Amino acid sequence: MPGALIPFDQWKAPETSVRRSLKDAFRHALAQIRAGVAPEAGAFESLDSLPELSRSKLQTLAPQPDYPKLAGALLRSLEDARSDGNAYQNVTFLVAAPFSGIRSALGFFPELEPAKIGVHGPWSVIVPPENLLVDDQGAREWWGRQDLSTPWVIPELADFWLRHLSGLALIRELLRRVAAGGLGPGVIGCSSWCWQFWSAYFQDVHFAPLTPEPLDAAGIGAWFEFHASQAGQRTVIVRMTDDGHYVLPMAEQGEGKKRKHSRYLRDLASAARGNPGVALAIWQRSLRARPEEEAQSEDPGQGVAESTKVTRFWVVPFDQLGLPIVPQTQGDNIGLVLHALLLHDGLNASSLALVTGIPEGELSFILARLARSELIEQQAAGEGWMVTALGYPSIRRHLDSWGFPVDML
């Protein structure tokens, strides 16, 4: 996964997300209709009906990040930030939007070799207690039993609280100890939604958090092209199904071979707000292939060198993709549920009922409706619910329009 760490207050959404308006989108659609001619062909035949790729093919063409490798890169970036003074004493807060991959990467810190991470001893993961409803005394006693003198990491701070009068003490006590200083090297991962709540709760303390830099069109395209080409082992060509304009490769192929490039990647960076996990989910949903081309890409035939492999795929435009949309309803119960899931980076039904005040019977109908709309999904049978990466852009937009406090990323 690409991207660097920057100070939280320096984060800015990709520029296209600011410039683009509905009128701009409409003009772009008209331009696509008028200019729907591929450079090397006459009238382009629409390929909108192509089938989606299989799950196994998606894992080859657009795989999930390698989280152990991301953990190593993340730690190197954190150590650079500390050496530059961009850290709060020994403890670094790493705030990231949902689906950024930071939580998963931090979970692999204990597997890193101590000799390569610049600290004495391996990292230990701090796991929250089963019961989050404790008083201040109980929180002090619990943290007193945790070893924070040697390198430690919390993959997700949202796991340590519930938005309830009795569910705040654990994070309050931890932040008090961090502010007081004297702890060993620590890294605290935190969802941007959880951070929005707690940074407002402790307005007088500046913890100097870091955050992943948002990806622009070039960053997203380079990431997708690297994986689709299998690290340069084959040539990958990705075009739009509606007009044949090119998405990948981003670079021109030499003199006399100018290609019309789509603005799909710019629109994708805008829709995902530079979030790699959201961009990847939309990319996977958008990809298509002709059956004969997909079969050829899997079996190029005997005598074909790896360097000559050409893989062709197609991308469905945004307006034909049908991404999940938040249903319009009376009341704010759907908003309460979605906001709570983002604040806590996922919750089970009983905890949702506790923090929202919605009876579990009524809550079950709301969860079922949101799941059918592809806005949320259950991690495993009987376990917690989480917002989906595909549904996240619509959810964030609607929570903002409904007046809920939203994150800064």
Layout: helices, strands, pairs:
Layout: E1 5-7, H1 15-19, H2 22-34, H3 55-61, H4 67-83, E2 91-96, H5 102-106, E3 124-125, H6 136-144, E4 152-154, H7 169-180, E5 186-191, H8 192-201, E6 210-212, H9 217-228, E7 235-240, E8 246-248, H10 264-271, H11 276-286, E9 287-288, H12 291-298, E10 310-315, H13 333-343, H14 349-356, H15 360-372, E11 376-378, E12 385-387, H16 392-401
Parallel strand pairs: 2-5, 3-4, 4-5, 7-10
Antiparallel strand pairs: 1-6, 7-8, 9-10, 11-12
Helix pairs in contact: 6-7, 9-10
Characterization of the model:
This protein is of the alpha/beta class and 409 residues long. The protein has 3 domains: 45-63 and 215-320, no CATH class; 88-207, no CATH class; 333-401, Arc Repressor Mutant, subunit A. 39% of the residues lie in helices and 11% in strands. It has 16 helices and 12 strands. Strand 7 and strand 8 form a beta hairpin. It is globular and about 70 Å long.
List keywords for this structure.
409 residues; 11% strand; 16 helices; four-stranded parallel β-sheet; alpha/beta; four-stranded mixed β-sheet
Range of helix content: 25-40%
For the largest beta sheet, what order do the strands appear in spatially? 2-5-4-3
The profile of the biggest β sheet is: 4 strands, parallel
Distance between the termini: 18 Å
Average pLDDT, all residues: 85
Brief account:
The protein is an alpha/beta fold.
